[in-house]
Each structure stands twice: as structure tokens, then as C-alpha cells.
Amino acid sequence: MSRVGKYPVPVPSGVTVQIAGTEFIAKGKLGESRMPLSDEVETTIEGSEVWVKPKSDSKRARMMWGTTRALINNLVKGVSDGFTVNLDINGVGYRAAVEGKNLKLALGYSHDIDYPIPDDVTMKCEKPTSISITGRDKQIVGQLAAEIRSFRGPEPYKGKGIKYSTETILRKEGKKK
The Large ribosomal subunit protein uL6 alpha-beta domain covers which part of the protein (predicted)? Predict the structure, then answer.
């Protein structure tokens, strides 16, 4: 029995959901998102809840039960509230700025890094040492944050680099004489 799949997905007010063939569609204040549904699960809308049940007792159907429920939950949450990932930049001279449709990063290299911002994602830099990535698709927001972090990951000796705001960097002691 799936521990995630057995619970319904609550649909908040202001969000409309529908099943069109093999596709799940959610519309909210942040736009519209679509997701293909698996053949192994049965998805139904009852009132303001979405229920997901496996069609058979096969291992694949049970795997897709919880996965489909989690993806639908992320879709509904994304169109109603959206997802945000915050990044912090540590280091002398390291900074970020949003210029038009590009994120300009100065990370100690001989050149600045210009990272294009996709259309369905917004990035803000309230301070030159913090980046806020917001969007309705959790996978895209997380992927962008991971790519930006990979330009200069945090190092354990001085803590310089880009890290998630919720991340804790384990610090190491330097060389001793």
C-alpha cells in the first residue's frame, strides 16, 4: 500500500482541475500546467479532491500510484502558490544581478557568467548576495537552482560559493603548522 498515494490531493479555491483523455490539467492564478497520466493508475476528481488509485496489483502500478499522486499535488500547488528556491552567495567579490532576461553572476572567474532566465520562471536579487528563483513547475525551479549552484559550489574550507539558503556547509579545519 502506498503511503503517499492513499491520501487525496486537496484542490484549493481558485484552482480548477480536469482530466482530458490521458492528460491532467490544472489552472490557477499562476497559469495552466498539464501532465500526462500513467496507464497503470486511475485518477478521479470528487468535489475539491483528486483521488489516485492503482488499476491492478502489479509492482509498476503500485509504484506509479504514489508517483502520480505526488506529481498531481506539485502541479496543483504550483499553479496556486508556486515554488521558490533561495540561493546565497558567499565570497569576496561574488555577486549576482538580474539584467533584463539574464542573470549576471560574478563568481571569481576571469569573466562574468550570463545565465538566460526561462519565460515561466522569475528571478530576483534583493541583495547582490542572494538569488530567489520562483516558478510554477517544481522540477524546472529545482533544476535551475542546481545549475546556478554548479557554477561555483560551496567549498568546505572558507565556505565560498553558491549554496541553498537551507543548506548547511560542513566546514573543515585548514592545514596546521
Answer: 11-82, 91-164
Is residue 172 in some structural domain?
no
How many Å apart are CA 113 and CA 89, to the nearest integer?
14
Cα–Cα distance, 139 to 126 (Å, whole number): 24
Residues 43 and 94 in one domain: no
The Cα-based distances of 139 to 7, 75, 84 in angstroms read: 22, 10, 11
Q: pTM of the full predicted structure?
A: 0.85
CA dihedral for 24, 26, 30, 31, sign (positive or negative): positive
pLDDT by residue (tens digit) across 58-95?
A: 889 888 898 999 999 999 999 999 999 999 999 899 99
Gap between the Cα atoms of 1 and 71, Å rounded: 18
Is the domain of 130 the same as that of 104?
A: yes
